[in-house]
Amino acid sequence: MTTSTAPAPLPQGNDAPSTLSDMLLPVVRSPMLDRDEELFAYELVFYRQGAGTDADTTLLGGIVSGITDGAITRLVRGNRAFMRLSRALLLEQTDILAHTPRLGVIMDPFQVRDVALVQRLQQLALRNCPLMLDLGELDPGACEPHGALEPLLRLASYVRIDAKALDADTLAARCKQLYERGIGVIAGNVDDHLTYGRCKDLPFQAIQGRYLLVPQQIEVPVLTPNRLSLLRLMGALQESSAGPVELGEIIRDDAVLSYKLLGCVNSAYFALPRQLKSIQQAAIFFGLARMRNWINTMALSSMDDRPPELLRAALIRAHMCEKLAHGMPTEQQDMAFMAGLLSLLDTLLCAPMEFVLSHLPLAPEIREALVEDRGPFAPLLGQIYAWEAGDLHANQMQPQNIRKMAGAYFAATQWADQVYSFAEQRTH
User: Fold this and answer.
1) What is the band of 17 on the pLDDT scale with cuts at 50, 70, 90?
2) Which of 28, 111, 346, 403 has its C-alpha lying 20 to 30 A from 412's C-alpha?
3) Domain ranges, residue 237
């Protein structure tokens, strides 16, 4: 019987934060997906850690620093991103946006009454800074309650409307009206698949909302051969008797998976002291539990029929859950990783969680967290769900915990983006 060594800490690359708190800006990236479910842009949602001038000043300083030192650009992988910025930042720090042309500004209807701010927004538009008007449920032609919105509509490259608040006919009429003006229209607050169904056949540039993380209700779940094969692989990896040689044999016939896995662990991001040439060597170097997690990660990330941002979300949850489990026994940290990774398995496989997990021999602690919302990992997942939703006050998150979560989230996005970049590669 082969015994495993204790998992070694995963080396960090030069671009990754060295501690959980290196990225202190409390922010989450919310994806907007186009018709092909590919990323169109991110919205950067900043969380205030308190109220008052001091909190605003701290957040303002963090945003400026994040833009100037490139942390925000790394957070969004250089993609287009929109932010809602304070009046002070727009009036005093506009030049920083001129050097980051893929960072755009979200405008609110009430800003039409602020003459100085409208003038500054006009300057940003002339500098080709993308501007998005967050219209909500307001009629674009309305004069109340903020006055005629035409000055902002003329500046906007994009307009976001609240898809959840509008009935189907009004939603279609608003979308068509703005689309015919040549403005890109974003459907916002698409938090369920019923609302998504109303949006997907309309000429929206992109759709944004929590529908992406919500499993569809399927009357009779069916797992395709590819998904059954994925579950069989993940099930085989859970066998406790599998040593380094056995792990190599489990994925021996999947040359593409092996290639991507070794390419990822040998990348410059992880700065290994020597190149690992086989799965067996990698298992010995990293430890069996960590290597099983890595194979599960790469296998799940290789699904090519699901939105890439959904797969990235699963990876981010896995990494965050593992980091938040710091202080638990090593075995539980590894299980925490799997709990985070599998927390979107029902959404990824379009089947109920209990049905999917019936095909996997998981540790009871993981199953309890995913199905019954209890056990040692349920509170960790709860913190992550709250962070994703921006619901920090409902969980009474203290400032030191917000700091910890901010660092964990930034580190997790960098790790997830690196891993996924290898998973989506096509071998020749």
Assistant:
1) very low
2) 346
3) 225-423
This prediction has a pTM of 0.88
Under DSSP, the state recorded for 326 is B
Domain end position, chosen among 184, 213, 242: 213
Is residue 201 domain-shared with residue 239, that is, in the same domain? no
3-state secondary structure of 107: strand
Summarize pLDDT for 154-174 with one digit per residue, the tens.
999 999 999 999 999 999 999
User: Are 40 and 75 in the same domain?
Assistant: yes
Average pLDDT over every residue of 176-185: 96
Provide CB contacts within 8 A for 351, sequence distance 6+. 215, 218, 221, 222, 223
Q: φ, ψ for residue 28 (rounded to 5)?
A: -135, 145
pLDDT tens by residue, 378-425? 999 999 999 998 876 655 667 778 888 999 999 999 999 988 888 877
Q: How far is CA 377 from the centre of its chain?
A: 20
> Rounded to an integer, what distance in angstroms lies between the CA atom of residue 358 and that of residue 364?
12
Phi, psi (deg, nearest 5) at residue 204 = -80, 140
Is there a single domain that holds both residue 33 and residue 177?
Answer: yes
User: Is residue 245 included in any domain, yes or no?
Assistant: yes
- Does some domain include residue 16? no
How does the average pLDDT of the chain come out, rounded?
85
With tokens 């000055």, the residue in question is: 151
CA proximity to 153, closest of 139, 164, 166: 139
Specify the residue for token string 């590894």.
Answer: 334
Name the pLDDT band for 343 (thresholds 50, 70, 90). very high
The two beta strands, 81-83 and 39-46, are: parallel
